[in-house]
């Protein structure tokens, strides 16, 4: 396992996941490479797509706004040189609209808050460069999360709330 300044690539990857729940901007500056790319950012708000610490921090704020008590439990970490895979469970409670975007940056869908909790498995993949996260990919159980939060299958009343939430999100964008 490669190390930089005594910190292993696996430790950098794990810390970069954990700060998504409660890290400060300075934590992102410390752990995320200035040219880092989040390969999962295509459906995130435009401010999350800039890469580097600013983009990763914007992603954290986007997630924290929608999901109160956001937390990650780390189950397994495997590192091979500068590549790291982390198996985890993400959990939280849906308390604010969760808005996803088109690749062009327009509002695609808005999920109004349900107040429900969720816990879903995720696998995160990282490339570490100079002791910092340079690239991130993820495989998430989005369907499981949608089912736990009541997004799928949607009730007619929830579809109406989604349409209203999307309209509001478009106006706010």
From TrEMBL:
Superkingdom, taxonomy of origin = Bacteria
Listed GO biological process terms: polyketide metabolic process
- The organism named in the record is Kribbella kalugense
Protein name (Swiss-Prot/TrEMBL): Putative ester cyclase
Checking Gene3D superfamilies in the record gives: 3.10.450.50
